[in-house]
Amino acid sequence: MHTIAVINQKGGVGKTTTTVNLAVALARAGQRVGVIDLDPQSHASLHLGADVQRAAPTTYELLTSDVSLSEVWRDTEEGVRLAPANLDLAAAEVELAGVVGRELILRDKLQADAESFDFVLVDCPPSLGVLTINALSAVRDVMLPLQPHFLALHGLSKLMKTVGIVQSRLNNQLRLAGVVLCMYESSAKLSAEISADVAEYIAKLREQGGIGRTAQLFEQRIRRNIRLAEAPSFGQSIFRYDGRCNGAEDYRRLADEVLAVYGAG
Amino acid sequence: MHTIAVINQKGGVGKTTTTVNLAVALARAGQRVGVIDLDPQSHASLHLGADVQRAAPTTYELLTSDVSLSEVWRDTEEGVRLAPANLDLAAAEVELAGVVGRELILRDKLQADAESFDFVLVDCPPSLGVLTINALSAVRDVMLPLQPHFLALHGLSKLMKTVGIVQSRLNNQLRLAGVVLCMYESSAKLSAEISADVAEYIAKLREQGGIGRTAQLFEQRIRRNIRLAEAPSFGQSIFRYDGRCNGAEDYRRLADEVLAVYGAG
Ligand SMILES: Nc1ncnc2c1ncn2[C@@H]1O[C@H](COP(=O)(O)OP(=O)(O)OP(=O)(O)O)[C@@H](O)[C@H]1O
Ligand SMILES: Nc1ncnc2c1ncn2[C@@H]1O[C@H](COP(=O)(O)OP(=O)(O)OP(=O)(O)O)[C@@H](O)[C@H]1O
Ligand SMILES: [Mg+2]
Ligand SMILES: [Mg+2]
Which of A158, A226, A229 sits opposite B87 (nearest CB)? Predict the structure, then answer.
């Protein structure tokens, strides 16, 4: 089972859009896929058509009570299973402060889960708090969506530091699997410039060894495409909403590249 | 003195870009302006050319020690004063948990500050944690940048609930001053659709009275303009970077509208 945390403390860079559409693309390629929503805003859950007002257990109960992951998994109409979030999760940060082992709750419950998946993707909020640390402690790989804007580089080294700390103290198997450029504007030279900077940064990471040695910049970039922003309002992945647009094309190819990297499928 | 918290728990919607460029536009219109950076990512500080590695006191020390605001204010080359943030601020959320009156620290220090400004703008992180609550407790007005995408509406009611709670328990004078549409794509019908939904939502808010009764949708929209994304890499506001592009035009007009609303200038 390949477990991937989709992370970036910078807001609005495409974490949720990537988690959802990559998960669905992998499912359409025959993989058994689960999505865990760890963002109190529950956008991944909404995007997958979940009813977040329903009283059924969510990732909030998963982290703050003894509910098991199997009680949280739900079906979706997209061929992936979903462990949905809801707004209560915002309270988890405070509620868990001071609870011993609070960073390892997701890991324990994921390991105890009997359900078998080929891929589990975890959508994280734009912060490096207890929710994101739970994701980092529970998975093997980190996937980093990055918008090719200037500030993307600034946050990268802080993020790598955090990933490094989790790897040394809480989760030895953690590694940076890949960076995927999102909201790429082919017409903007800023995109090209930042992409070159990112490629350079990743090359350095690989040389330094440690957690960055497996780092790679995915060849497939996700281009800006308004269809990707429209799809969530219908509770649909891009494949159901408009399977032929550039957005669908790009995520389909990203899934192929992910499968090649894992030697899976 | 008009105090404005720039807020939205959704990531990457233009909070920092708006805080910085609106502040500078107001200063260029003759106002005395201060910017307080409450985001651990310190993007507003970087955008204003501050050296965030410097050991001088930042908003982290402001919130966690007895340093005064006057020890934190710095000059910038943009004609605004800056109380910069740095990455240490990420620890504040945890450090302040359990501290009595932790939501009111900024308010107390702002009230104690002798420096006189016409406008103070506070840039907030994409969350509704203790940093954002400090901003909400310290200011009179809330400004909400909104990207006209579907999920913008979903977060709006949760945000208004939080603003309402702060207003009733911690800060009676708090009110929603305005929503400004950012990253507006005139060619996309999604922008037009969501804008119409936002206008409708604001009309309802005004009718309900209470904190929403002063709510307004600013007429000036900030259009997508790559120059706005390029400017931060030079540590410059849009006015120094490219004073004639659409981005500069839009923020200049937004400043005029803000001044008209406040009957100032
Ligand atoms: N390639 C794209 N082209 C156009 N719009 C996009 C693209 N990717 C994402 N979007 C839209 O941009 C907004 C931000 O994307 P998204 O919510 O996936 O980012 P995020 O990193 O998960 O944000 P947050 O930090 O708030 O969790 C959303 O409205 C989304 O629909
Ligand atoms: N109108 C615009 N046109 C093009 N790019 C923009 C525009 N406004 C902001 N940007 C860019 O989009 C990205 C996100 O904007 P910004 O950082 O201001 O959002 P934010 O809400 O402060 O994000 P966060 O939630 O991470 O604090 C930045 O790289 C910024 O330079
Ligand atoms: Mg998200
Ligand atoms: Mg910001």
Answer: A158
